[in-house]
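Open question from group meeting: does this chain pack into something compact, or does most of it stay loose? Before anyone orders reagents, we agreed to write out a predicted structure and look at it together. Recording both the input and the output here so the notebook holds the full record.
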Amino acid sequence: MSKLIQYHHIAIRTGNIHRAMEFYTALGFAVIERFTAGITLACWLEGLGTRLELMQVPLPRPAPDAFGDEHYVGYYHLSFQVENLENLLSQLREQLPEPPKVLLAPTSQTIGQKNYRVAFIQDYDGLPIELMEMLGNL
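Structure tokens returned:
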């Protein structure tokens, strides 16, 4: 019987691969491979203990509103733990030519026995990304 060996990557379709690469490299990813997938441009990025694949869509449509539509089923968000949430948001505003849209301003949240500072932003294609700073245990 065959089994899964390990996680490989998350694929994200984008309307503009160059803008998407700029956005995700600002989050801490590095482009490790550029290639074509059929007729479209694609790349792999690595960082933060994971791998992303970006694929450019020739005739993009807007992404569904996964954050705002409480009945949406499917991809919801990527989540990354950060060292300092406020500093990262400030850094992204300075680094990127178009600052990411903030879906949820930094707020406190308790999950289990841990306290977090949590915010949601959008990438340039409208996909939600959660940023979590662990504040400590209860």
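Observations to bring back to the group:
The chain is about 15% helix and 45% strand.
The chain has two domains: 7-59, 76-138.
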